[in-house]
């Protein structure tokens, strides 16, 4: 009688093992086996991290094995089991790999195909077509779209983390409990004694050091020491944690009536302001998005304020970007003066602080939340709904949506919900952040996620004109490495553009993103379908880059740049000044966040800047969804390219007082998971 050797690998994460009964059935081209109990006498099967082998003898020849069925039946108490993979040694000595990397919950069952990636057109056998269809039907019932707030990208239909499908939950929910993590961060930073001191102002700038100096960090210490300097202020628009807003000014906006006479002491080339604009030396950051957004009113004891400033910057002869004019609201007028470096010291400083606070709000809610977290969740949900596990694009992308839906669900549960943690310290809490996302969605485009296009659209692409824009330089290197890799994978599975166009599962995935993620908004520029291999490679690059590199660039520098509270105030407790010559240091300190809000802010930026335990970085694919040699070779080349980028960045940073490392591939997690 034919005998098979079955090797079963159990996951190594916490609670991955099971004591339940595990049964195996084989489905072949010539017949199906009976159900076999996988059990060894006097042995604890399926322990966490175990790889167990079993001999399975069948009554008759089964032909080519097409599917294997795993059933889990209760032994004592219900537990979940994480099955990594099964390897089958056939009677003639061949090995067949069946990747799984899924949880089997309760009295569940799972049907697996062998690990070769297949497009729908490759499946000619009825049972395989049926398996493919059933998998998607099941997934579409599990992964449902939901509108969390009007105008938002649609998200997963789950009220809390435990409502999610088991396969996309965190291994341990405690590890991503925002309340717990923020409180723990404040404890680790020795600042928890201040956390309830709302309405209590600090005495002066030096007083902020009480909650700052407990953790030594090169960049954050440098920010503390130099935050008042114009060069440091300008540098952050290039290489801080929100390096996506600055753009070259092609024409001075009418709403900012700045003149050469106002800024001539800042211009170093003996040119008029208009001539400097023509030569490409003037840059602008416009916080128009914040205009009309409601400030946080959740605490009746503390009034909080927002502004929508416009900041004009200048590239000086040293090629440094420095601010030369700031207007704190969008409509010019007598009560909306243009602040200048030549003004009184504290007038100019407070104007810059308002810009930094506005930058913090746009960074947190748009650059970070909307453009990485929510967009990546859309890609993830669409992938699970429309691509079966055997599809090569599923195998490629699954590592890049790992825990993304879970972290966003947790955020909606604890962080950005009504009365959530976001309301505690942020002036855009209490609903302002929701208004911001609704407003920003009207301008979110596909091209804004294509890194080289986004850089070019802002006029920031010239390395000669703007030599110190490391976010751009490193981002382009990583983008090209990802694009080369995705192009290789596409070439392996798609012979021609026609095969791309006829891949209905792929087209459904792309259409789901457009219809539900972008709400069918034509102006978004998101494709409804993809017709060429080149466009498919670009689309996949967008998905992977957004989830990995872009998120890393705007997330992991938050403690570096935002821990010194005056450099990134999460709220302001007095309205923007309407006249010049009246600002004092006492007024500035009373405007900045109180002790309690400062502590919650610091706990947040510390917690958000930490990598996950057992973080998987770009190029790491420990789950072997792909089994084919050509793809594994492409992955090896991808890692080699990434390693070369790590070396280039490390070499440059050796000479820098302010190193830029957020886009070094060894610091870029594979997915949005924090």
Automatic annotation (TrEMBL):
Location in or out of the cell: Cytoplasm
Q: Does the keyword Cytoplasm apply?
A: yes
Record carries keyword Iron: yes
Give the main localization category: cytoplasm
Q: Which InterPro entries match?
A: LipOase, LipOase_C, LipOase_C_sf, LipOase_CS, LipOase_Fe_BS, LipOase_mml, PLAT/LH2_dom, PLAT/LH2_dom_sf
Domain called Lipoxygenase: residue spans: 118-674
| Pfam families recorded | Lipoxygenase (PF00305), PLAT (PF01477)
What residues does the PLAT domain cover?
Answer: 2-118
Q: Which UniProt keywords apply?
A: Cytoplasm, Dioxygenase, Iron, Lipid metabolism, Metal-binding, Oxidoreductase
Cofactor(s) listed: Fe cation
Pathway(s) annotated for this protein in UniProt = Lipid metabolism
- Homology family: Belongs to the lipoxygenase family.
Q: Which PANTHER family match?
A: LIPOXYGENASE
**Protein's name according to its UniProt entry:** Polyunsaturated fatty acid 5-lipoxygenase
UniProt organism field: Vicugna pacos
Q: What high-level taxonomic lineage is stated for the organism?
A: Eukaryota, Metazoa, Chordata, Craniata, Vertebrata
